[in-house]
Amino acid sequence: MRAGVHRECFCRSGFRRVAEIVRDLADALDYAHDMGVVHRDVKPANVMIDVRGQTLLMDFGLAHLEGSGERLTQDGSVMGTPAYMAPEQADGSCGEVGPASDQCSLGVVLYELLSGRIPFDGPAATVIFNHLQQAPEPPRRANPVRSKCSPDRIDL
Q1: Considering the domain boundaries, does residue 16 fall inside one?
Q2: What's this model's pTM, rounded to 2 decimal places?
C-alpha cells in the first residue's frame, strides 16, 4: 500500500487515472456524508492506493458527526491542513463546515494532481489569507509543463 497521492508523480498514470482517484474519493466522501460524517482533513497524505490500485480515504481523526451536538472545536478555531481547507474552514466558521467543505478540499487535491502544486503555498497564515481573498491560478497556467504531458501520462 502506498501512502499518500504524490504531486511529484504526474506524468506516469494518465489523466484518466487521476479522474478515477478523484471519483473514488468523491464516492468515499459521499458515503461518509450520507452517514453524517464530515472528514475535515481531505489531503493527499490521507489517501492511500492499495496493491490492487484501489483508492482509500484514511485518517478520520478530525472528522465530525453531524447532528451529534458534540463540538470538537470552538468557533474561531481552525482544524485541518491550511493548504486544503475550504474558506469557511479556514476562517474558523466551525458551524458552517460540512460536506461542501470536504468537497472543496477534494478540489484542492484534484488541482494538485493536475498542476503538480497546491493552489496557495507559504506559512499557514498566508495560505489561509489567500484561500479567503483570492482565486487560485488555473491549473494549466500553474504548471504549463504538466498541461503538455500526453493525456495518457500523469504520475500519482
Answers
A1: yes
A2: 0.79
